[in-house]
Amino acid sequence: MRMYDIILKKRSNLPLTDEEIRFVISGYVNGEIPDYQVSALLMTIVFNGMNARELGTLTMAMAQSGHMVDLSNIDGITVDKHSTGGVGDKTTLIIGPLVAACGGKVAKMSGRGLGHTGGTIDKMESIPNLKVSLDQEAFINQVNTIGLAVIGQSEGLAPADKKLYALRDVTGTVDSIPLIASSVMSKKLASGAQAILLDVKVGSGAFMKTIDDARALAKAMVDIGKENGRSVKAVLTDMDRPLGHAIGNALEIREVIDTLKGHGPEDLTHECLIMAAHMLVLSQICDYETALSRVQEALNSGAALERLHMMIDAQGGDSRVLDDESLLVIGKFTYDVTAPLDGYITHMNTEQCGIASVMLGAGRTIKDGPIDYSAGIVMHKKTGDAITAGESIATLYASDESLLVNAAKTYLEAITFGKTAPVVVDTILDMVE
Ligand code: URA
Questions:
Q1: Residue-range domains of the chain with CATH
Q2: Closest residue (by CA) to atom 7 of ligand 1?
Q3: Ligand 1 in reach of 84 Cβ (< 6 A)
Q4: Which of 151, 245, 276, 279 lies in disulfide reach of 295, CB 3.0 to 4.6 Å?
Q5: Nearest protein CA to atom 2 of ligand 1, as residue
Q6: Residue 230: strand, helix, or coil
């Protein structure tokens, strides 16, 4: 079998056989097939797509390229969630405690920030001393004891995805439905959870810019999960504006705590309650209506906050942050972005809001580069809000003062102002199951 012939075949829009797909993945992971040939194949997939069988085989080959985690020692149905990536998306750290407080078993492996999008593991690391890696036994024990563990993906999990993702990032082949679906689902299948809730983001801050593309991606991922014996649902959520008020690691942790104390932003709280309820249903704990009232009660009673407390303690972190926000380091230099006119915010280019936050130091500009946990943005006004000329619409935080002015310019350019109030959609747009 020759990689050259496989590239030509896919370029002619002919489906690849299962053997050919497995040949590509194993050859790439063990270094026999070079980046440039895989890049060419990825680009043919961007243009010609893949059928359902090819996609299923590709995903399994990627999942099996490394260690398949065995969670069978966890009592009960293990449930995981995955977001396709957004700006201000700190939902895992709110939903996980909500679900655990209602009896769910959340065994979650999360990623780091990518491009303009943030990552749960980076956010968690802004909590002093919190460990984001546990060995398998400790991970399983923690889920059995408190119902919740969130750790980084281990090196050995789906290494094919790791290599392919890095290549896609630099070859213009990220935003392709079969490539995103196989990337996400290979990690989810390898992570071992029996039930999976997918959060497919749609809009200017998401990889999928239209609802139709997001639905197609959701359907592809749900089908892969079901064919592999997992219970899967996808929720399509709005990413045409950042979620909540905070962007940036420590600032987002502050917002997580506020939300679990019952005074978080309305859009964030609403989205988290709905997704947590779906996770309880996927875990076969109760029906949707009961689940919604249980998660609401877990929020109101402080039971979910208590689960976050237990998780931070179990993972060695300083849980005093829950009562003393000064333990979270926030950038000491600030800059207020002001409204240029009386009227409304009519749109937010959410990707660009994320880029402004990266410019402040909150994200990486090179792979494995440094990150400033204290940097970020607090948005006082978002799409649909009325504004008056000169008032602050956002405060930027940095530990390097020289970064503020350029980031403020980028942030302001991301915002569209107008005289008429826009229609603001609900953050939950659709479901695919
Ligand atoms: N998230 C992933 O894990 N993979 C992609 O390809 C895109 C988003």
A1: 3-49 (1.20.970.10), 78-322 (3.40.1030.10), 330-418 (3.90.1170.30)
A2: 180
A3: yes
A4: 276
A5: 184
A6: coil
pLDDT of residue 345: 98
Task: Judge if pTM exceeds 0.70.
Answer: yes
Low pLDDT (below 70) residues in the chain: 367
Give me the sheet containing 428-432, strands edge to edge: 148-152, 105-110, 78-83, 195-202, 231-238, 428-432
Write down the pLDDT at residue 328: 96
Picking from 128, 158, 151, the residue whose alpha carbon sits closest to that of residue 62 is 158
Place of tokens 């940095």: 398
Q: What is residue 114's predicted lDDT score, i.e. its pLDDT?
A: 72
Dihedral sign from CA coordinates of 247, 205, 55, 31: negative
Per-residue model confidence (pLDDT) at position 367: 66
d(CA 279, CA 257): 21
Cβ(264) – ligand 1 distance below 6 Å: no
- Cα(234)–Cα(219) distance, rounded to whole angstroms? 8
183 to 149, 174, 186, 346: CA distances (angstroms): 22, 10, 5, 34
- State which of 174, 177, 188, 351 you would mutate to test the pocket of ligand 1, scoring each by most atoms of that ligand within 8 A of its C-beta: 174
Residue of 177, 183, 221 with the most ligand 1 atoms within 8 Å of its CB, for mutation = 183
| Closest protein CA for atom 5 of ligand 1 | 180
